[in-house]
Amino acid sequence: MTDAAAAETSFLPVVVAIDGPAAAGKGTLARGLAARLGLAYLDTGSLYRAVGAKLLAEGGDPADAETAAAVARALVPADLGRPDLRSEAVGTAASQVAANPRVRAALLAFQRDFAASPPDGKAGAVLDGRDIGTVVCPDAPAKLFVDASVEIRARRRMEELQQGGGDAIYAAVLADLKERDARDRNRADAPLKPADDAELLDTTDLGIEEALERALAIVQRKTGLAVTKQA
Ligand code: CDP
Q1: What's the structural domain count of the chain?
Q2: Pocket test for ligand 1, best of 28, 55, 130 (most atoms within 8 A of CB)
């Protein structure tokens, strides 16, 4: 085999794992990192949200483990484009079905395949979620755990919901985030927690640009990736 052919076959996509609690800013950071570094992006929460949304739309109960697992196994890419994915009701249903090990097992292969073979021939992928650095891609060279105070996360989620045209009451959003975080942190299967080798990024006092610059610096230090697109 020539050196070039050997290099070709040993090519391994670079994986950037971004985890953290609800509304900490993972999605914005992950999208920004992917755009600046020329990587593919997967919002793994949208998979759990799609399962929750389909269940609710069919009048199902997220606590019904059998039905939730069947919905997860039958998920198709079009489900990830549902217009109702970002509602709080769907977020809550998502965190309920996410505690079900059979739902998690059904969604694991898709996430790992995406990381191993990023679409459009990209050199790697950014995945954001709760268990990317611990379970989905434990060998990822760059892992970030993004956090912020629960109060600032509730404010950000309120703004997001209001921009989407919805009504949002701060106290209700705050209570919902706390309940969801507790469920995500305390579940037995793939609980939300930083991987041992994750870098912590607290965005409580950071604007979007500053948080992105810090995340970029960490990922570049860990992977050697170059910025392909300036801000
Ligand atoms: O956008 P937000 O931070 O509110 O949540 P999300 O990332 O869309 O995820 C919705 C729910 O899916 C979370 O509360 C988790 O329970 C679950 N999830 C998970 O268990 N594992 C992942 N890798 C991603 C999301």
Answers
A1: 1
A2: 130
Separation between Cα atoms, residue 144 and residue 197, nearest integer Å: 9
The pTM of the whole model exceeds 0.85: yes
In a domain, 79, yes or no: yes
Strand arrangement of the beta sheet that strand 14-19 belongs to: 40-43, 124-129, 14-19, 142-147, 199-202
| 107: its two tokens | 């969604």
- 45 Cβ below 6 A of ligand 1: yes
Residue 4 lies in a domain: no
Give the contacts of 224 (CB within 8 A, at least 6 positions apart).
none
Pocket test for ligand 1, best of 28, 42, 48 (most atoms within 8 A of CB): 48
Query: 217 in a domain, yes or no?
Result: yes
Over residues 152-195, the pLDDT tens digits come to 999 999 998 888 787 889 999 999 999 999 999 999 999 999 99
Q: How far apart are CA 169 and CA 181, in angstroms?
A: 18
Residue 181 alpha carbon, nearest atom of ligand 1 = 14
